[in-house]
Write a structure and sequence with these properties.
With 171 residues, this protein is an alpha+beta fold. The chain contains three helices and four strands, in the order H-H-E-E-H-E-E.
Length: 171
């Protein structure tokens, strides 16, 4: 009978140990499964962020290319200032300025903004449009700050144009 008791107790211990090991393995599987799911969801979120960053990066690269090309154009043509630039533009259009004088210069970050005042009398709308187009399509960054156009009393087809301009260069 002793042998039978020993066999039952030994068998019981083996079953107990196997049961404990089974429970530990099941708990380990559950924890690993939860961790794997969290890792998958985090990985998915990181991939979405990465795709957003890539989209933004391509936009930044495009903008940087545009800025670099504009800076290259500025560097290719050295200017002496907004007055000389506008004088060249007016000469190419056969216009004469009544007033073309430099104003103040402002430093904005790494750029220098040089202001000027331009006044042209007795001109027609075609010349005004051509002047505005040349300023707009100029490779130099010229900014029109303000514009006023008035008709003359003697001839309603002739106008007086006053403009405040700014040339932006690297300072």
């Amino acid at each position: 009978m002793n042998d039978l008791v020993k066999k039952v107790l030994f068998f019981d211990k083996t079953i107990s140990v196997l049961t404990v090991l089974s429970v530990i393995i099941i708990i380990a599987i559950i924890v690993t499964s939860i961790y794997a799911n969290e890792t998958k969801s985090r990985n998915k979120a990181l991939r979405a962020q990465l795709s957003e960053i890539n989209a933004l990066a391509s936009g930044v690269v495009g903008t940087k290319g545009f800025v670099d090309s504009k800076e290259k154009k500025i560097g290719m043509r050295k200017t002496k200032g907004v007055v000389s630039t506008m004088q060249q533009t007016l000469t190419s259009l056969d216009l004469k300025a009544k007033t073309l004088k430099p104003l103040d210069k402002k430093k904005v970050l790494e750029y220098l903004e040089e202001n000027a005042e331009l006044e042209i009398e007795s001109t027609d709308l075609n010349h005004i449009v051509n002047l505005l187009y040349n300023i707009e399509s100029s490779p130099l960054p010229i900014k029109i700050k303000s514009t006023s156009i008035k008709t003359s009393f003697e001839d309603p087809d002739k106008f007086t144009l006053k403009m405040m301009l700014a040339l932006i260069t690297k300072g």
